[in-house]
Amino acid sequence: MSADDALAATTSGLQLNRLASKYELHSQGAEARVWEGSLQARPVIVKQRFSKQYRHPVLDAKLTVSRLKQEVRSMMRARKLGVRTPVPFLVDHDASCIYMERIEGHSVKTLLHERSLQESDLEALLVAIGRTVAKLHDGGLVHGDLTTSNMMRRQADQDLVLIDFGLSYNSIIPEDKAVDLYVLERAFSSAHAEAGAAMFERTLEAYRRASKQWSATLNRFAEVRMRGRKRAMIG
């Protein structure tokens, strides 16, 4: 291990210890750890991006800062488009952390798995998903990880809130929006197998009704869906 690598590893360890002393680890994924706690008496989520040891420390630091900035910019842009997201409070570049509002509620994945929603509530939720994604796409923003795990229904007002913009990016290309929709379709079919296809179609109809640019996107979506199904058949 080089001196730079050793320094990066030591710094990462110190940052991890500092967070662990103040916050509770909520979850850990491939790209980041998520912590829960409070900041100035406000309940917060702290998203900490991992350092990639296979990258040169200087390059790793630059890429991490760039992705932190992009994630926060995407949340702020989504909010301007009328899409509800957690409010970002603080970005700590040194610790590779974003401190943001903690959404009190349940993920859409959990709600659909529990099957406790009345038909009218389910319809309202699926329509809200379609309209929310339409706002995002019409505004030139692609989520990048559009799954029911990354959608929350806030307990206080029942509003739909999109979370985890770590893979988001700006795009007006129909193909990119179509891939976003295909990811959502796969999420519905894999996580909610029995009724997932029907729920997605209701969501897609709400998207079509709400989007001003639906034609090009849905035409491309049909092609993306066909390619995906061919890959699945071939294995």
Automatic annotation (TrEMBL):
Gene3D superfamilies: Phosphorylase Kinase, domain 1 (3.30.200.20), Transferase(Phosphotransferase) domain 1 (1.10.510.10). SUPFAM superfamilies: Protein kinase-like (PK-like). GO terms for molecular function: ATP binding; hydrolase activity; protein serine/threonine kinase activity. It is found in: Nucleus. Keywords: ATP-binding, Hydrolase, Kinase, Nucleotide-binding, Nucleus, Phosphoprotein, Serine/threonine-protein kinase, Transferase, tRNA processing. Residues 20-235 form the Protein kinase domain. It comes from the Eukaryota. InterPro entries: Bud32, Kinase-like_dom_sf, Prot_kinase_dom. Its EC number is 2.7.11.1. One of its GO terms (biological process) is tRNA threonylcarbamoyladenosine metabolic process. The keyword Nucleus applies. Pfam families: Pkinase. GO terms for cellular component: cytosol; EKC/KEOPS complex; nucleus. It catalyses: L-threonyl-[protein] + ATP = O-phospho-L-threonyl-[protein] + ADP + H(+); L-seryl-[protein] + ATP = O-phospho-L-seryl-[protein] + ADP + H(+). Its main location: nucleus. Belongs to the protein kinase superfamily. BUD32 family. NCBIfam families: arch_bud32. This is non-specific serine/threonine protein kinase. It comes from Chlorella vulgaris (Green alga).
